[in-house]
Amino acid sequence: MYHPRFYRKGMGTNRFVSFCVIWKESDLWIGIDPDSYRKEIPTFVRRKIITLRGELDTYNVENPEFRTSLVPLEIARTASDNIKKMAKAASKANIGPMAAVAGLFAQEVGKAIIDKFNPRELIIENGGDLFIKIDKPITISVYAGSSLLSGKVGLNILPVYSPLGICTSAGTFGHSFSKGKADAVVVACKNTALADVFATAFCNQVQTEEDISKTLLRTKVFDDILNVLIIKNNKLGVQGKLELKALSPKENSPILEGINEIN
Question: Which residues lie below 8 Å from residue 74, measured CB to CB, with a gap of 6+?
Answer without folding.
Answer: none
